[in-house]
Amino acid sequence: MMSDEAAVAMIDALNALAVDYMIVGSVSSAFYGSPTAGLGVDFVARLTQSQVSALAERLSPRLTLEHPEESGTALRYLFRSADAGAYVELYRLSDDPYDEERFARRVRVKLFGRDTFLPTAEDVVVTKLLWYGEGPRAKHFEDARNVVLVQRDALDWDYVQRLCDRHGTRELLDKIRRSIPQVD
Amino acid sequence: MAEPTRELIDAIERDRVLAARRMSPEEKLLAGARLFDRSCRIMADGIRHQFPDADEERVQEILRERLRKIRELEGRG
Fold first, then answer.
1. CATH class for domain A3-119?
2. Distance between CA A30 and CA A32 in Å, rounded?
3. Beta-strand relationship, A41-46 and A87-92
4. In chain A, where does the domain assigned CATH 3.30.460.40 lie?
5. Is B73 in Cβ contact with A87 (below 8 Å)?
6. Interface A-B: count of C-beta contacts within 8 A
7. Tens-digit pLDDT profile for residues A1-53
């Protein structure tokens, strides 16, 4: 099984069970314009334990639920394909105020041929800069920069600036914006 | 499965790296092309969402333009 097949299986299962969720990570930044070399597909969902069990039952035997583990303030579940060729990560929505905020702003899109949900482009930029600020990985900065480059006129800049001010990442955002006008 | 999840993910990634190392140059080229193609498909879905009236030719044109801009920016270091 390929990662995208695993992702489609997860989308179908989440939609069928009426779980509130969104796709995050490299797929969301690629959707808004930053190419990805990653294969994984990450989900965030507002989940009850009974929904986790229902998901596991619905996805078996194509995807098997591994043991959950703590990841920051969120709980992470790994679903792995039977042939071990693919996996998707499912994060339980944390009670972090910004996680709640970006989740509430998520948008319905068509992706992988399915109706599904993503964070807004603004929240992809804000989140990538937040992650870069917490533990610099060049990919996070590049994703934020590429989404700004591609979406710049379409972005709600008041929102992006306000959130970056709140997270202490305004300097990173300004660095990106200074680099953009030189390109076109 | 008794292993913690992070360890399992690391193991899967390690298997992928080892599998990539076993690939011939031709296979590596094909794998890279597949990844790029996947990335372009996701980007094209995003363009269709943003420009619902764009026909397929226009979607591909916007995609090429976005890739060009990113290459130019990356080229500037």
1. alpha beta
2. 5
3. parallel
4. 3-119
5. no
6. 83
7. 678 889 999 999 999 999 999 999 999 999 999 988 777 899 999 998 899 99
